[in-house]
Design brief:
The protein is α/β, with parallel strands linked by helices. It folds into 2 domains: about 140 residues, Nucleotidyltransferase, domain 5; about 180 residues, Nucleotidyltransferase, domain 5 (2-Layer Sandwich). The strands form 3 sheets. The protein has a 7-stranded mixed beta sheet with strand order 12-13-9-8-7-14-15, with helices on both faces. The chain has a 6-stranded mixed beta sheet with strand order 1-4-3-2-5-6, sandwiched between helices. A hairpin with a 2-residue loop joins β3 and β4.
């Protein structure tokens, strides 16, 4: 159990149960955060038993009985059921936290851990890019931009909730077959290319993975929107880039495999591809445009195209912030987290523009529980 002090003192014990795919828990008590190990994917029964067992042992200490229990808002996560059980047991209040806001606040918390004297700004931008997280609109998010204002100053006595706005995101694409599109990235490729190419040309790009009959079924399923979900996920877009360029097969060997291989096979990016930004109710980075470019240049150096695609995402995120804050070239204060923050090409570009990325707290789902705590400590009113 890792323990570290933070410059926030408030009464009460807060328990954060984290997410699902990298399960851990965190507890705030008296200015200290207790941060458990990563127990792995809690969908696996053995992992969940270890997680629940360690949590039970930790909570045997009467001083650690929680008054607030924080959990991911996804209703089907095992931690959601556990949160309700523990709330009844301890007479605590169960509070859901949106997945990507927890990612953002994990980076905010990391800066406070890294520099306890850092004057936390009342207003800042937050960027969260990963594979999957339930959004407040019921869609699958994963390429999100938030504007957060009226957050608590560490030196003030404000007791009001922060104002949090989702001001931008990646273009919504289709998860063809829902979670099957995570296991088979060629499904994402079909749905994205189907926006910009005729059916015959889409088949040419994926025929090594599906027969003509299989493709026809998938194509019709996508057109009929049957068992499909919308997603703004940066992870799924990069999965599709990786399989289009031939760096990964159509069966996921491990989490992040497609993105890992995309980065490992990247060299020098091509110049000249500018992010296509669209403004409606929010600011949207057009990712279909990226695939139009890749198809047009598919016979060029694949390793350079790989770097170009990742840089397109990074520059697009910066462009969204720039649209919101047009007077500054330095993007401070902005915080970036989520699994894609582990991608060296994306993260190094954002860091070069002044964006803060976690140094100690995990950037992916293993940092969610700490992010849930900081969200409650800094964005919500005291209970």
């Amino acid at each position: 159990m890792d323990t570290f002090e933070i410059p926030i003192k408030t009464e009460g014990v807060f328990l954060a149960l984290g997410a699902e795919s990298a399960g851990n828990f965190s507890v705030y008590c008296g200015g200290l955060i207790y941060f458990s190990e990563d127990f792995g994917d809690l969908f696996e029964e053995a992992n969940f038993e270890k997680y629940a067992g360690e949590l039970k042992r930790f909570l045997k200490n009467e001083k650690m009985e929680p008054g607030i229990i924080l959990y991911d808002m996804h209703p089907l996560f095992r931690t959601t059921g556990l949160a309700n059980e523990l709330a009844k047991k301890y007479g605590a209040k169960a509070v859901p936290v949106q997945h990507h806001l927890a990612h953002v606040y994990s980076a905010v918390g990391d800066q406070l851990r890294h520099d306890p004297d850092f004057p936390l700004p009342a207003s800042f931008m937050g960027v969260a890019c990963d594979g999957t997280g339930l959004g407040t609109d019921g869609k699958i998010w994963g390429g999100e931009m938030f504007k957060i204002s009226n957050s608590k100053f560490l030196i003030s006595n404000k007791n009001t909730s922060a104002k949090i706005e989702r001001v931008g995101h990646l273009e919504n694409q289709t998860l063809l077959g829902g979670e099957m599109a995570i296991k088979e990235p060629a499904r994402m490729l079909i749905s994205i290319l189907g926006k910009c190419l005729p059916k015959e040309e889409v088949f040419l790009q994926i025929k090594k993975y599906y027969s003509q009959n299989e493709f026809e079924l998938l194509w019709n399923q996508c057109r009929q929107n049957f068992n499909c979900l919308e997603t703004s996920s940066a992870g799924r877009v990069l999965d599709a880039v990786s399989i289009l360029l031939g760096f990964v097969g159509n069966k996921r060997g491990y989490k992040h495999e497609a993105i890992d291989l995309l980065e490992k096979n990247s060299t020098k990016p091509y110049a000249g591809l500018k992010p296509k930004i669209e403004i409606s109710e929010s600011i949207i980075l057009n990712t279909t445009y990226l695939f139009e470019y890749l198809i047009k240049n598919i016979n060029k150096d694949k390793k350079r195209l790989a770097a170009t695609a990742q840089l397109y995402i990074a520059e697009g995120l910066c462009e969204i912030i720039q649209n919101l804050e047009p007077k500054t070239q330095n993007l401070k204060p902005t915080y970036f987290a989520g699994g894609v923050a582990n991608n060296g090409i994306v993260s190094s570009h954002l860091e070069s523009r002044g964006v803060y990325i976690s140094k100690k707290i995990p950037r992916g789902d293993a940092g969610i529980s700490v992010g849930q705590l900081f969200y409650h400590l800094l964005a919500n009113p005291r209970d």
